[in-house]
Write a structure and sequence with these properties.
Order of helices and strands: EHHEHEEEHHEEEHH
Structural class: alpha+beta
InterPro entries: DUF1419
Helix content: 25-40%
Radius of gyration: 17 Å
Number of domains: 2
Protein name: DUF1419 domain-containing protein
Shape: globular
Largest sheet: 5 strands, mixed
Number of strands: 8
Strand order of the largest sheet: 1-2-5-4-3
Pfam family, one: DUF1419
Strand content: 25-35%
Distance between the termini: 10 Å
Length: 199
């Protein structure tokens, strides 16, 4: 199973959050240049039944085998939205994922990854999932990409506002947040979840 498949939001997204996360990388530098396939392909998150039904009714699906359907409109290159209706631990749940359809197996890999991740007996989050949740749930004015103020090697990486004890604030690289800073940015119900080993 490809290791690039990743959960980017904890909990089920409502419609507003779902639409925000459809383009989590809208502010990226050079948006109109280059291939963004690797940036989006493999991202997934949970949605509700109402959101799943709404998206099914927007346009006729590109295809609809069994418990999933793909959107006819592509986000970038060969990457499109695939929506899943999956029974996990005797409960039907709904998910959105970005699949690169140049690999015909990508929707099957995505389905397997979602079921494996959501079937864990204990709720837990990896460090990467914590960072992705923070990125997904932070509004655009409070997140950005490293610019000329950062060392050249870090430019273009994701940054997020961090507040100091003295009420100062500064943009910091997302992947370099400390455990304390990560906990401060997570909702209370997610702060004390155990660490999960990355798959």
């Amino acid at each position: 199973m490809p290791s690039s498949i990743r959960k980017v939001y904890q909990g089920a997204a409502d419609r507003r959050q779902m639409f925000r996360m459809f383009d989590r990388h809208a502010q990226r530098p050079n948006r109109t240049h280059g291939d963004a396939t690797a940036l989006y392909s493999g991202e997934w998150f949970e949605i509700g039944q109402v959101e799943h039904t709404y998206m099914f009714e927007v346009l006729p699906p590109l295809w609809m085998p069994g418990d999933m359907f793909a959107m006819r409109e592509f986000l970038t290159g060969s990457v499109t939205s695939v929506f899943f209706e999956l029974k996990i631990d005797e409960r039907v749940r709904y998910f959105h994922g970005y699949c690169d359809l140049t690999d015909r197996q990508s929707p099957e890999w995505m389905r397997a990854a979602i079921v494996e991740r959501e079937s864990r007996p204990v709720r837990a989050m990896t460090r990467e999932e914590r960072l992705e949740h923070i990125w997904s749930s932070t509004h655009d004015p409070y997140r950005s990409y490293a610019d000329w103020r950062f060392p050249r090697v870090d430019r273009g990486k994701r940054t997020i506002i961090v507040y100091g004890a003295d009420r100062s604030r500064d943009f910091r690289l997302l992947d370099r947040l400390t455990d304390v800073e990560i906990a401060a940015k997570l909702p209370v119900q997610l702060r004390h979840l155990p660490d999960a080993l990355a798959a």
